[in-house]
Amino acid sequence: YLGSGCDQIDMHLTYRVGHTTVGKIVRKVCAAIWEELLEEAFPPFTEARWKDIANSFQQRSQFPNALGAIDGKHVRVLKPKLSGSLFYNYKNYFSVVLLAIADARNKFIYIDVGAFGKDSDSTIFERSGFNRKLENNELNIPKDQPFPGTDGPNVPFMFIGDEAFSLSQKVLRPFTGKMLSDTKRIFNYRMSRARINVEKTFGILSNKWKIFQKPIKGNLDFVVLVIKTCCALHNYVRDRDGIVFEDTLSTEGFEDLPMNPAGSMRGPIQAVQLRNKWAEYFVSDDGSVPWQTRY
């Protein structure tokens, strides 16, 4: 069901099992998979784990002090009962949102599933339990440290988002505007090279689990369970079988979320200054790389 994306009615006809029975089996198996894999697929946040994630971003994407790339995607669903227009998105279909943070190995670090299709990335992230813990310093984030090759100053570890997210002291986003300096263009390019990891993760997810390539049928609880189960299986399989490169090139079945008007705001001065530190480091002798002017 998850891998082939076949309809439950097709399974009912193929296996000569009652339609209701098929639904119960699918739900029961998904719940068992989620319960069994939860701790392995989404282990607790420890300082050692965050440092491993940051080291991976530095080694694979040459982006220092990064803890994860954030993005959200619409997952097509049939209209949930009694939901009105809450799940009707700007693309004119019904959806729930899968908000995810991915690491540089194309695994999910965190997922938030089931938000209304009409909501934006930034709004969902700000309301999430993860963000509440982040703001309250409950995630065991490592202490600030200097950029590689330098003796200081200390710089915090941060998450990477696109233009849909507001700039903050926890989340970096690109510089916006058409007349950008070379320093800002290089920052944006370096950042895009790191942020592409979450896009690749979604691509692998949708190509591996065909259930995402057409609207998911069922009540909201079932849809959320299916999405969470696929994400847990994604991490489980990723650890064992690696990836097929072609799967990273498309995100069939997923759509980007709308831009949040708040995302265009300049951000607090402290956040602006932090982003400038990354931009300045990338054009320094210690932080530059040969390919960064190919933007």
UniProtKB/TrEMBL annotation:
Top-level taxon: Eukaryota
Cross-referenced InterPro entries: HARBI1-like, HARBI1_dom
Key word Repeat present? no
Q: What is the protein's major site of localization?
A: nucleus
Compartment list: Nucleus
List each copy of the DDE Tnp4 domain by range.
Answer: 70-235
Keyword list, A-Z: Hydrolase, Metal-binding, Nuclease, Nucleus
Q: Which cofactor does it need?
A: a divalent metal cation
- Note one Pfam family from the annotation: DDE_Tnp_4
Cellular component GO terms, alphabetically? nucleus
For this UniProt entry, the molecular function terms from Gene Ontology, in alphabetical order, are: hydrolase activity; metal ion binding; nuclease activity
Report the family membership: Belongs to the HARBI1 family.
Q: By what name is this protein known?
A: DDE Tnp4 domain-containing protein
Its source organism is Aedes albopictus (Asian tiger mosquito)
